[in-house]
Amino acid sequence: MPTRKAHVFVLLVFFFLVAVLIMFNDFLAVALMSGFLGFARSFIQVPLPLVFAEYNLQRFPSAFGLYSVIFGIIAVMIGPFIGKQCVTFEAS
């Protein structure tokens, strides 16, 4: 499987697991899902600096900084949504 397709696949699995994670209340299920999410996230983020460095080494710091800022903003924006979903599933 080519690297790009593998990353897209793992990214889709990651989003699916996040969606499934908010539906569980059991500690063991949440612990297992957190482990799978950690694996998927590390599989996406570890090779990323290598791709940036291979493409253009002179612009690597600015490109990786921009990536980090965008990822941080997305994480801050999605956090309240996940919290709202947890409250919704908890109430029903």
Global mean pLDDT: 76
Number of helices: 4
Q: Structural class of the helix and strand makeup?
A: mainly alpha
- Anisotropy-based shape: elongated
Would you list the SSEs in sequence order as H and E? HHHH
Question: How many domain units?
Answer: 1
| Low-confidence parts | none
Query: Distance between the terminal alpha carbons, to the nearest Å?
Result: 41 Å
The total of beta strands comes to: 0
Range of helix content: over 70%
Largest sheet: none
Return Rg in Å.
16 Å
Strand content: under 5%
In brief, what are we looking at here?
The protein has 92 residues and is mostly helical. It is 85% helix and 0% strand. The longest helix is centred in the last third of the chain and has 32 residues, at 60-91.
